[in-house]
Every structure is written in C-alpha cells, then in structure tokens.
Write a structure and sequence with these properties.
Chains A, B: InterPro entries: PhoU, PhoU-like_sf, PhoU_dom. Chains A, B: Its main location: cytoplasm. Chains A, B: It is found in: Cytoplasm. Chains A, B: Plays a role in the regulation of phosphate uptake. The structure is a homodimer of 215-residue chains. With 215 residues, chain A is mostly helical. Chain A has a single domain, classed as Phosphate transport system protein phou homolog 2, domain 2 (Methane Monooxygenase Hydroxylase, Chain G, domain 1), CATH 1.20.58.220. The first copy, chain A, is elongated and about 60 Å long. At the A-B interface, helix 2, helix 3, helix 5 and helix 6 of A face helix 2, helix 3, helix 5 and helix 6 of B.
Chain lengths: 215, 215
C-alpha cells in the first residue's frame, strides 16, 4: 500500500491495532485483578476503557475523512466497512474487560469467584489474553490464514465455560455466587466471540468471502 | 429525499426497519415461549434468526453498491456509517432473542424460570417488545427526538434486572436455576442496551452529535 489513499487506510488500521492491544491488556489485567481481588487495578481498568471508546470515535472521523476525500473501489470499501465492524467488536471487548473489573469492585472486599473455580478463571483469562495477542498480529499483518484459525482458540473458552456450568450444581454455592460465576464466564466467552468476529472481518476484507459465521 | 442516491439510502433504511421489526417479533415470541415452555415456538425463533442474519449481508452489499456508485457528502456518510453500526446491533438483538429461545430448548420439558419470577420476566419481555416497537418508528421516521428518549425505556429493563438479582439470595434456588435466571435477565438487559445504541446512532446520523453514550 503506497498511494495517499492506502496510506490513510494503513493509518486507520493502526488505530484498530491500537484498540486491539488495549483491550488485550485490559482483559489480562482484569483477570489478575479478579484473581487477586485488586480493587486499585480494577479501577484503573474501568478508567482506561474511556481511551478505547475515544479511539472508536477517532476511527469514525478518520473513515468519514477518508470517504469524502477519495473514490474508493469495492475492495477498499469492504476494508472500510470491516473497520467499522471491527471497531464495534473491539469496543465491546473493552467493555467486557471492564465488566470483569467492575465485578471485583462490586463484591470487594469479598472475592467474586470461589477458590474452587480459580484455576478455571485463570485458564479463561490466559486464553483470552492469547487470543488478543493473536488478534493484534492478525490485524497488523492482515493475516487471513491465521484469522481463519481463530475459532479454534475460542473453542477453549467455550470448553472452560461448559466445565464451569457443569460444576455449578455440585459445588453448593449460594445463588449470588452462582450468578456471578455464570456472568463472569460469559464475559470471557463473549470476549472470545468478538475476537473471532474481528478475525472473520479481516478474512472477509481480504478474501471477500461473506460466508463466515456471524451467529 | 428524492434523487437516486437518496432513494438508495431510503431503501437501505427500509432494510434496517425490516430487521428491527423482525427482532422485535422475535423477542416477543421468545418471551411467550419462555413463559409457556413452548419448544415448537422456540425452534421457530431459532430458525427465523437466519433471516435476520441474511438481512445484514444484504445491507453490506447495498452499502458497497451505494458507495461505489455515488460521491457522498459527510452527512450522508454519517448515515451510512450509522447503518453499518445499526445493523450490527440489530443482528445482536436477534441473537439475544434466539438465546432466550435456546434456553427453553435446553431445559425442556422443565421450565427455565421459577414461578416466583414469571411476572418479572413477563415485565422484561413486555418492556423489550415496547422498546422494539418504538425503535421501528424511530428508524422509519428518523425520529431523533424520540431516539433521545430511548434510554428512559431501557431503565425499566435495568430496574427489573436489579430486582431479580436482589431476590436471588432469598429464593433458595439451586445454582443451575440461579445461573439460568441471571443469564436470561442479562439477555433482556442487553437487548435494551442495543436498542438504545441504535436509537443513539439515529440521533447521531441526524444531528452529528457524537457525544452520546457508548458505554
């Protein structure tokens, strides 16, 4: 990509990469805060999410600038449409990391998750962080082959979520703890789903194949 | 709106209105299926969601067609960007109605929600249906004044969700039921959040005011 239009597209993509980096850091920090009951860290994550939201507005402005200045061809427009969708998903991933952090603040000084599920949530956090790291690479390199593999990583999040649900009836938690656990597991699972959608958007922008899962 | 470009925008908007109608019908039917334990209705809702997803692809194609054929000014581009975001939110609202329906199928022939929470879920279903109806009007008429009122309706969903959470510790449900209840309440609450986002997008497209809540 070398002409002025494509330089603008590269700059647009750099904003998406920045968003992906930030939401990846946020979910990693949120998991640490969850496992340690660290309210100061949780508060910082909630505050940082504003920066992610601000990036989304910057992306919108950049897109409108870009579209008013240049006549784009269909393949470039696919990329631009993809950028809009990707920014929506990344913004949501930031929200989900924020939700994890907020659950820490809501129950402090008590722990949100019971000791018996710490390993499962550590596994979800690790999988989400790994997915985010891959996502940064996929976006930065427009790596659509890697992008098509993303749902395999996401399967791990789904598997841990299923394991947590299966344990629930036997662990004898109160309703409030059970509710917290189910919601938290869902936040991680949704984080993964959005990452898969972003990856599919990259694949779509590169290949034009719309028959990728949006369910 | 009268020139060919604006006719195309109107057609694009008609697709969004169609999506909004369908997801409104879906959440209404899903609530009935939830309250009645009606698995046949639940299966139909799951199947119908494919049509909502298909509309999203149609909207993408229409947007690319539109942008390749015409030079749009910034205000029209705001509308087009808004249409992309709106279609993402509406597709997600369809998913959430589908999730309610799937929970019916997952627990059948048992009821998903306990009798003591039937009225609360009926209230959430009624609020979600009412919000959807308003949303159809807001989209069809580009009614940004009504759009700015949408978060008031959404407050009711949040209030019922809080009420359900507050009751949980005292109702003595098992962990599985508590988990189901918390997730279902969240599906309705998220449905409302997405409706508010759609309404804000309409307001944004009409007024250009980006300082609307995206949290």
């Amino acid at each position: 990509m070398s002409n002025p239009f494509h330089q603008h597209l590269d700059e647009l993509n750099a904003l998406l990469v920045d968003m992906a980096r930030r939401v990846g850091a946020a979910i990693e920090q949120a998991t640490a805060a969850l496992l340690e009951g660290d309210t100061a860290a949780a508060e910082a994550i909630v505050a940082e999410d504003e920066l992610v939201n601000a990036l989304q507005f910057q992306i919108d402005d950049r897109i409108i600038e870009l579209m008013t200045q240049y006549d784009a061809v269909a393949s470039d427009l696919r990329f631009v449409l993809g950028a809009v969708r990707i920014s929506v998903d990344l913004e949501r991933m930031g929200d989900l990391a924020k939700h994890v952090a907020k659950s820490v603040l809501l129950r402090a000084p008590a722990a949100v998750i019971p000791d018996s599920l710490r390993l499962d949530f550590a596994a979800m956090g690790a999988a989400a962080a790994r997915i985010s790291e891959k996502l940064v690479g996929i976006l930065a390199e427009q790596d659509y082959l890697q992008a098509t593999q993303m749902s395999l990583d996401d399967d791990e999040l789904d598997a841990v979520q299923d394991r947590i649900h299966a344990q629930l009836p036997n662990l004898g938690y109160g309703s409030e703890t059970a509710g917290d656990v189910v919601l938290l597991a869902r936040f991680y699972e949704r984080f993964g789903d959005h990452a898969v959608r972003v990856a599919h958007q990259v694949a779509y922008a590169v290949t034009g194949d719309i028959h990728l899962d949006r369910s």
